[in-house]
Amino acid sequence: MKKTILLLSILAVVIFLTNCNTTGEKKKGIPTASTDTISQIKSPLETGQEMAMKTKAILGKHLVTAIQDMGTEGAIEFCSSRAIQLTDSMSTVLGSRIKRVAERNRNPVNVASADELSYIKEIKASLTRKENPKPQLKETTETYTAYYPILTDQLCLQCHGDKKTDIKPATLSTLNRLYPGDKATGFKLNELRGIWVVEMKKAK
């Protein structure tokens, strides 16, 4: 029974991280990619997605512990203080710059750039047309930049949904304390919450 509960907790956290963007990432230079960063077999878009998912897995591992020890409010505390550090560490390990950004951001440093907002606009339009959102790749002479949509699901609404019906009072109190300028509530199911951005330097 305990193993079943633990597995369900881990699954919930993976969904939570995929669909819920609770903190921003610091902006800094793109680390130099290792020789195998851009695979000879996999496309840059596939490689970037793998990097985003590896980062999500590391965050999930630590977030599971926070949930088990301190509950949902503890998970929010973790995201506000540790998620940036862990994401930065994964950027260094994977030789790329990895972050999550949003139009309606929670953390002040999590604001989407003009290029990122352009992709967000495209995804919103595709969702309005009832189309499946697709990732996007942009290329310069030196880098690949990959964008991946993050959609809300039922679990995500616990921190990003309606303040009266979806978010518990204790959770809302913690959010108000940690993010006084929070814009990331009021979402509905299957709306675009934010995006993963992975910037990879081309191998020389």
Q: How would you characterize this protein structure?
A:
By secondary structure, the protein is an alpha+beta fold. The chain has one domain (2-21, 44-201). Helices cover 48% and strands 14% of the residues. The chain contains six helices and four strands. The protein has a four-stranded antiparallel sheet with strand order 1-4-3-2. Strand 2 and strand 3 form a beta hairpin. The radius of gyration is 17 Å and the shape is globular.
Summarize the entry for a quick read.
With 204 residues, the protein is of the alpha+beta class. It contains 6 helices and 4 strands; from the N terminus they run αααβαββααβ.
List keywords for this structure.
globular; alpha+beta; 48% helix; 204 residues; 4 strands; disordered N terminus; 6 helices; 4-stranded antiparallel beta sheet; single chain
